[in-house]
Specification:
The complex is a heterotrimer of chains A (212), B (229) and C (387).
Chain A lengths: L1 H17 L10 H6 L4 H24 L9 H23 L1 H7 L10 H9 L6 H31 L1 E2 L2 E2 L9 H4 L1 H32 L1
Antiparallel strand pairs in A: 1-2
Chain B lengths: L1 H6 L6 H45 L5 E7 L5 E3 L11 E7 L5 E11 L4 E9 L4 E9 L14 H4 L4 E2 L14 E3 L9 E3 L5 H22 L3 H5 L3
Parallel strand pairs in B: 8-9
Antiparallel strand pairs in B: 1-2, 1-3, 3-4, 4-5, 5-6, 6-7
Chain C lengths: L16 H23 L1 H23 L11 H12 L6 H15 L13 H12 L1 H4 L29 H7 L10 H8 L5 H6 L11 H13 L6 H20 L7 H6 L3 H8 L10 H21 L6 H18 L9 H7 L40
The chains are: A mainly alpha (212), B alpha+beta (229), C mainly alpha (387).
């Protein structure tokens, strides 16, 4: 039993860390830059995408045996669009303010390359359960990425996190952080950090292999 | 094209492709309709609450609202009372207090601001013929500069703003204009915020554009609107 | 190593990057002194903090080896001084420190240090704080305030990350018109008040919210140009094209547009034209290119000032010019002697390249030490990588 569990965990962590969609693969940049002006927006976007990701991967995986490869992209897109529409209604039902804040980017989940990429690269080749686990990992990784951007931008741009002020009355907001350039700056800083970590790891690896 | 197809050793039969697509479409159709049905009530409720909250904010003394269309032929009709919106119809809200007396009208106006259209909801007091205030529906103005329109005390002091109809009742007697900071001389002018002139101008233009067409249409029906029907 | 082909004459003079930079710093000194005389303690603190922040950042990046160059080459000092001169004198010091850090980190270190930067670092820093703190950067204090050498402008001493104190209140206490806190350009744009050109040239008349005196900057610029530390073509082209554009518009409708002298001597146009646009790494090296570059910046400045929501356009104009520099260099390659018109028409694909300014001697020639680049061996390719 330990063997499959370890593999499952590996599948899950793949998306969360090693192949993190935002920081490593740099996919899905459109929502990552556009809706991350506050932590709550970023988190909602991440959860919505994760939901679409898991559901569509499950359905793609279930229908993989009788999907002819000639029409597979059409099938994936229809499936993804279906769940995006469902999420669209769900968010409207939960909160219109959130719906307005996320704007067109909810509908644009359809063309998020992470989802189509997962469907094509993983779900179409694996049974439903592993596909869903992998999708959940990717979704969590994407959510973490968005949250990392959104929290930094909200802290600098509004002096708050989840709408709770952190610095009291007189905080000077960094307006640039809630404007589009701020998204690029913060994303760049995070990518820099991840690249530095990765490089340090590689250097250690090189040293170890040289010593051996 | 046809030559290539014949070279492929195994082709999927057309029937299989159509069958798969049909099946997937059917499943997806079911899911979408299910989602729509199950969220419909909550979405409508949310939309109603959002509209009411916006209207109550600009007409603070209102306790209930009724939505109307002001049609281009000069008639008004209740929203949802049979028939859909005609071309050129403008939606407005009538706010009533507890006993059902009219306390104010509210309508939407929009004009180009600094980065995008500034959409506002403004309140109109028919008894005094003034615009009493406004609230922002949607705006993407620069934080810290353009978004001061809702908090700047000097700017909010522009209201109530005169919006009398001309003698023939076809247009406003004086066009509502936004003037440069510190040069307001007439009660129908809006004193702009220094440094946020463009956003201030958008507010003035938004109010003016809607008021110019809406108020002449409503004027003949004011008696009917006075009591909540 | 690549072979450089340069046209004659081959100047050999003891000229290094460091020496040029040192002269630029010297020429900036009178401007800084006058600036401090105008605005007092706050201006002095601003100059020190912004320059210090630039130097510290530069030091850190050279130490950690991510940037070539040496802190002793004075380029960070220039960046710091220019940045401080372009900010309002009462700009909160902590924001100044942020501007200095961003200028060096984002404007220079990210591209690989001195000589590799695409945009003028000082302007990158300024653009960042302009976007981040639009209110603070639009708040100017009038010059020649009584008691400016004893007390700071209250907004200077804002606690880091906190909003600065309200300068308008402070000015009211001093019984000055609140509008005195706007620059002449902002006054013209938002209030329609025009300042006289002769007042602007010297900046000596009282209580105007202006930067350092344009006349003084021009004198210092002429010194630099005479010593050939700066090419005179760029400022000449910028001022010429800005003046010409403003004059044409003024001639078309004098009641709508201010006179060309107001355009030339207000705001940061002179400072930008003389010191910022002439940054060697970010401006074209071909003589024809310099004219094109300068004309473009001058035109854009006037266009932004007249037709955009911003009162000042020099910064964005120069940044746009910087971005266009490689393109300008490409289309203004001089034809080497002996090349026929036929060859020019496309028989020969590439003209001779002029990778360096003729007055510039490479780092190796000047005996400077380039830090050894530390790069890792290529990453081993992972096999499980998908898509």
């Amino acid at each position: 039993m330990s063997q499959p569990t370890a593999k499952t965990w590996d599948e899950f962590m793949e998306g969360v860390w090693r192949q993190n969609p935002v920081f490593v693969m740099v996919l899905g940049m459109c929502p990552a830059l556009a809706v991350t002006v506050s932590a709550i927006n970023a988190l909602s976007m991440g959860v919505a995408t994760t939901f679409v990701l898991i559901c569509s991967c499950a359905l793609v995986s279930m229908t993989r045996r009788f999907t002819p490869k000639e029409v597979r992209i059409a099938v994936y897109i229809v499936i993804i669009a279906t769940f995006v529409t469902a999420v669209d209604y769900a968010i409207q039902a939960i909160s219109l303010a959130l719906y307005d804040a996320l704007g067109a980017f909810i509908q644009l989940i359809v063309v998020n390359c992470i989802i189509l990429g997962r469907a094509e690269a993983h779900a179409a080749k694996n049974p439903p359960l592993p596909a869903m686990i992998n999708a959940a990992g990717m979704g969590l990784g994407f959510t973490i990425g968005l949250f990392a951007l959104g929290s930094v931008r909200e802290i600098f741009g509004a002096g708050a996190l989840f709408g709770v002020p952190l610095f009291g009355e007189g905080f000077q907001p960094w307006v640039v952080m809630v404007l589009p350039p701020g998204g690029f700056f913060v994303l760049g800083c995070w990518l820099l950090l991840f690249a530095a970590i990765e490089r340090r790891k590689q250097r250690k690896l090189v040293e170890v292999t040289e010593n051996v | 094209m046809s030559a290539e197809v014949t070279m492929v050793p195994q082709t999927t039969p057309t029937a299989a492709m159509i069958r798969t697509l049909g099946l997937i479409s059917a499943i997806c159709g079911l899911i979408i309709v299910g989602a729509y049905q199950s969220t419909y009530d909550a979405v409508q409720e949310n939309k109603r609450i959002a509209v009411e909250r916006a209207v109550f904010k600009v007409i603070p003394s209102a306790k209930s609202i009724v939505e109307y269309w002001a049609l281009s032929d000069g008639q008004i009709e209740k929203v949802g009372a049979g028939g859909t919106a005609q071309a050129g119809a403008i939606k407005f809200f009538a706010g009533y207090d507890e006993p059902g007396k009219l306390v104010g009208l509210a309508a939407e106006g929009a004009a180009k601001g600094y980065s995008d259209y500034v959409r506002i909801l403004f309140a109109y007091d028919p008894s005094a013929a003034t615009v009493t205030g406004f609230g922002v529906v949607s705006a993407r103005e620069t934080p810290g500069i353009g978004d001061k329109i809702t908090v700047d005390k000097a700017f909010l002091a522009n209201f109530p703003l005169e919006a009398k109809l001309s003698d023939d009742g076809m247009v406003l007697a004086h066009e509502i204009r936004t003037v440069k900071h510190g040069s307001k001389t007439n009660p129908w002018e809006i004193d702009a915020i220094s440094g946020a002139t463009i956003t201030s101008r958008a507010v003035g233009k938004g109010i003016n554009d809607t008021a110019q067409t809406l108020l002449p249409r409503i004027a003949p029906h004011l008696e009917k609107l006075k009591e909540k029907s | 190593m690549s072979i450089e082909i340069r046209s004659a004459p081959h100047i050999k003079a003891p000229r290094s990057v460091e020496m040029i930079m040192r002269h630029v710093v010297w020429s900036l000194m009178p401007i800084c002194a006058f600036y401090i005389y105008q605005y007092g303690l706050s201006a002095f603190a601003s100059l020190v903090v912004v320059t210090g922040s630039c130097l510290l950042t530069e030091r850190w990046f050279t130490k950690t080896g991510t940037q070539s160059g040496d802190i002793s080459d004075y380029s960070a000092v220039i960046t710091g001084l220019l940045l401080a001169l372009s900010l309002p004198p009462g700009f909160p010091l902590w924001m100044g420190a942020v501007a200095g850090f961003v200028a060096i980190a984002l404007g220079k270190a990210l591209f690989g240090g001195i000589g590799f930067n695409v945009f003028n670092p000082a302007l990158v820093g300024r653009a960042f704080v302009q976007a981040a703190f639009p209110q603070a950067i639009a708040t100017y204090t009038p010059s020649f305030l009584p008691g400016r050498f004893h007390e700071m402008v209250p907004s200077s001493m804002a606690v880091p990350f906190m909003q600065p104190a309200d300068v308008l209140e402070w000015l009211k206490l001093k019984q000055l018109d609140a509008l005195a806190g706007a620059t002449p350009l902002a006054k013209w744009k938002f209030e329609g008040v025009l300042a006289g050109a002769e007042e602007l040239v010297t900046s000596l008349s009282g209580h105007m919210a202006v930067g350092p005196s344009p006349a003084l900057i021009l004198v210092c610029g002429i010194y630099l140009a005479m010593r050939r530390f700066m090419d005179w073509r760029i400022p000449a082209a910028i001022l010429g094209s800005a003046g010409l554009t403003a004059w044409i518009l003024f001639a078309i409708s004098p009641e709508r547009f201010p006179n060309p002298f107001f355009m030339l001597f207000s705001g940061g146009l002179i400072l930008g034209a003389v010191y910022m646009a002439t940054d060697m790494a970010t401006s074209p090296v071909t003589p024809k290119g310099m004219w094109v570059y300068g004309a473009f910046i001058g035109l854009m400045t006037v266009v932004i000032r007249y037709y955009s929501g911003l009162p000042e356009g020099v910064m964005y104009a120069i940044l746009l010019g910087n971005a266009a520099t490689p393109l300008i260099e490409r289309i203004t390659q001089p034809t080497p002697f002996g090349k026929s018109a036929l060859a020019r028409l496309g028989q020969v694909k590439r003209g001779a390249s002029y990778p360096l300014h003729p007055g510039y001697i490479s780092r190796e020639d000047a005996g400077a030490v380039t830090p050894k680049k530390r790069f890792l061996p290529n990453k081993p390719k992972r096999e499980d990588r998908e898509s």
